[in-house]
Write a structure and sequence with these properties.
By secondary structure, this protein is an alpha/beta fold. The strands form 4 sheets. An 8-stranded mixed β-sheet has the order 16-17-15-14-13-12-11-18, with helices on both faces. A 5-stranded parallel β-sheet has the order 2-1-3-4-5, sandwiched between helices. Helix 8 runs parallel beside helix 10 and helix 23 crosses helix 24. The radius of gyration is 27 Å and the shape is globular.
């Protein structure tokens, strides 16, 4: 009798939840069930999850991440919703979706009072089906006439993108897509020369669409060419003729998958670390049995497939993806194989850490995350053994698991299928992440060798600079708001364009925190978002990368801000802590630095009016069209005030340079440098 899994298959378990009416009550389980779901299960999930009331889910699980999505398009696009709902649920995100007027995307996007904008979408999907452009082409036509119609449509789309940027909530993203060219149009031309001309002009149209993309500024373009080139049919002639639904269900399913990857990237949820099993994943053979000279990644057709996979992994590492090994091997043997094998593109220096022992893979993945200071949610684990994959999936919640098998030729395709490392824009900090984590390992080794942590800090030669963010740093600051969870006072998420607008507003102080020590330059590791309101400085948010915590940087930045505010003649500094799922540890940061609690849990008696006039600061015109987040009020938030009478010292081992404006800094009495900050009266 064949072996049976003790647990029901994902599809069966999902059907059971649906039949019992328990999908909303047990929504977190849906993500686990979909983790290894096949296409049929995802299709079923979309059909039963799309009608689910998001409010019912949130009543049971109020911390569930939610994204508001509007869907519009040239034709009937409602069938996209189930596929998108399932894909987002697979990533643990609950969709609030609004399908707007079928075929009416021009009106939906151009009219600020349309139902699309009433939905207040974070993401708007404007699906351009294969008949886009062709509905404006008169018969008979020539390739040049099609090109003119395509260029007109592209310009209209550019105008609609501007309308969306003006009418949608700040930070919202409009998503367009490239348009497949159908055989039924190319082959209406009997001249092979003209067919080639039409194809070339159409490719230029799609290239122009792609060049419009600025995801960090609110416009993204999904490229469907890789989807159709993989054999996915774009059009459905019968439904197109009778229902104005021109995209095939398969194309919409792939579109939904790519859109979900984009939404995850826009939310700052890109993974940071790829953990790889060595035997059967990185190389062909078993190191413990065949020895370093017996494993291969070249020399045979099968071995070459492993070499191609290693080159893919190396390419990812060049863009900031941290690499780690987790295998049941001897660590020394793994390092020797990586160092000495003549066929391997990957070398020891490409890996941030190696965990090779005889313990469980799940424990190994947790060890990797701990060594690198990452949450398990930042890790992707790839292994060719089903048991190991399932053990990690069960024991390391949040880690992504890549389904590899005994066919190495498919390793690359499966690793890249789910866009785990996609990000709206690649920053210098991304590219340098492996180098900086290598320095971190050296730093940690030096600290471990020191008997006294305080003495170790004194040897760091730590230098911190805080000053207005430069243009090329704005994307990094936006990235920090999206990715930083633990040391983030309010959890506010901002796109690059929002950061740029805030930095340009009169009276605003958008500061980049840069750090360096004797081990190297860490780059931009934090951000301060502040606002000068009369004679007070309001700190809207303060955040710092987890990789530099524990060195005194946070104390130096906060102490420097207070000193700079007093030097400028301000009378008080206000700050707010707003609880998120991960920032409880920074609740006491302000009280430890002399702030008093003026509202929220632990408020000083009689301090309810200490924040100033009854009119909330959100009513103050900030000139960038947004509210002051620190003053909008939220459940559980705590507000603080510092009267600037007694200031906390900057840690003695930190050399601090801090400017609130672009003016040169002046040395402060305690040796730190602070800059003049004249309150804005504009």
């Amino acid at each position: 009798m064949p072996d049976r899994d003790p647990a029901p298959a994902p599809g069966a378990a999902l059907r059971t939840l649906h039949a019992r009416g328990r999908l909303a009550a047990e929504y977190p389980a849906v993500r686990e069930l979909l983790a290894a779901a096949d296409r049929d299960t995802l299709d079923f999930a979309g059909r039963v999850l799309a009608p689910l009331d998001p409010e019912e889910v949130l009543a049971h699980h109020p911390d569930t991440p939610v994204v508001r999505v509007a869907v519009t398009g040239r034709g009937t696009v409602g069938e996209l919703v189930p596929a998108l709902t399932a894909q987002l649920a697979w990533h643990g995100v609950l969709a609030r979706t609004r399908v707007c007027g079928s075929g009416g995307y021009l009106g939906d996007l151009a009219d600020p009072s349309s139902p699309l904008y009433a939905h207040a979408p974070e993401v708007t999907l404007c699906v351009l089906d294969p008949l886009t452009v062709w509905d404006k082409v008169e018969v008979p036509w020539q390739p040049l006439e099609v090109s003119v119609a395509a260029e007109r449509r592209r310009k209209v789309l550019g105008e609609l993108a501007q309308a969306h940027a003006a009418a949608a909530p700040r930070g919202a993203t409009l998503v367009l897509n490239t348009v497949p060219l159908l055989r039924r149009f190319t082959h209406q031309l009997t001249s092979l020369t003209q067919r080639a001309e039409l194809s070339g002009l159409w490719k230029q149209f799609n290239a122009d669409l792609l060049h419009m993309a600025r995801p960090s500024a609110g416009l993204a373009v999904l490229d469907l060419e890789p989807v159709t080139s993989a054999g996915v049919r774009a059009d459905e002639p019968r439904l197109g003729a009778y229902a104005d639904a021109h995209c095939t269900a398969e194309l919409l399913a792939h579109y939904a998958r790519e859109a979900a990857h984009l939404i995850r990237a826009l939310r700052g949820e890109a993974k940071k670390c790829l953990v790889l099993d060595p035997d059967g994943t990185l190389w062909d053979g078993v190191l413990g049995e065949d020895g370093p000279e017996g494993v291969t990644a070249a020399g045979t057709l099968r071995g070459s497939a492993f070499g191609a996979f290693q080159r893919t992994v190396k390419q990812l590492a060049s863009q900031g993806v941290l690499l780690a090994v987790c295998g049941r091997n001897d660590a020394g043997a793994v390092r020797r194989a990586l160092a000495e094998h003549p066929e391997f593109p990957l070398r020891p220096d490409d890996f941030a850490t190696v965990v090779a022992d005889w313990g469980s893979k799940a424990e190994g993945v947790r060890t990797v995350a701990e060594r690198l200071g990452l949450a398990p949610e930042a890790v992707v684990f790839a292994d060719d053994t089903p048991f190991e994959r399932e053990s990690v999936r069960a024991a390391v919640p949040g880690a992504a698991v890549v389904e590899l098998d005994a066919e190495p030729a498919l390793h690359t395709e499966r690793l890249l299928a789910d866009g785990w490392f996609d990000t709206p824009a690649l920053t210098d900090e991304d590219r340098l992440r492996p180098v900086r984590y290598a320095r971190r390992a050296v730093r940690a080794s030096s600290e471990a060798a020191s008997a006294d942590h305080r003495a170790f800090l004194g040897t760091l030669e730590l230098r911190v600079e805080v000053s207005p963010a430069r243009e090329h740093e704005l994307a990094r600051l936006a990235q920090l708001t999206l990715r930083t969870n633990r040391f983030n006072l309010t959890g506010e998420r901002l796109g690059a364009e929002q950061v740029r607008q805030r930095a340009a507003a009169p009276g605003a102080a958008v500061l980049a925190v840069r750090a360096a020590d004797r081990f190297g330059d860490e780059g931009v590791v934090g951000a301060v978002f502040a606002w000068i309101d009369g004679d007070r400085l309001r700190v809207e948010n303060l955040l710092l990368s987890c990789r530099v915590l524990g060195r005194g940087i946070e104390e130096a930045v906060l102490g420097g801000l207070l000193a700079a505010a007093r030097e400028a003649g301000l009378t008080a500094v206000h700050a707010v802590w707003r609880p998120t799922r991960a920032n409880a540890a920074v609740r006491m940061l302000c009280p430890r630095h002399g702030f008093r609690t003026v509202s929220g849990p632990g408020a000083d008696p009689g301090s309810g009016t200490a924040t100033g006039p009854a009119t909330p600061a959100a009513a103050v015109d900030r000139n960038d069209g947004t509210e002051t987040p620190a003053d909008t009020g939220a459940a559980g938030e705590v507000r603080f005030e510092h009267p600037l009478r007694t200031l906390p010292p900057v840690p003695g081992h930190v050399t601090l340079r801090l400017r609130l404006t672009g003016e040169p800094a002046q040395p402060a009495a305690d040796g730190a440098e602070v800059g003049a900050c004249a309150p804005s009266r504009s």
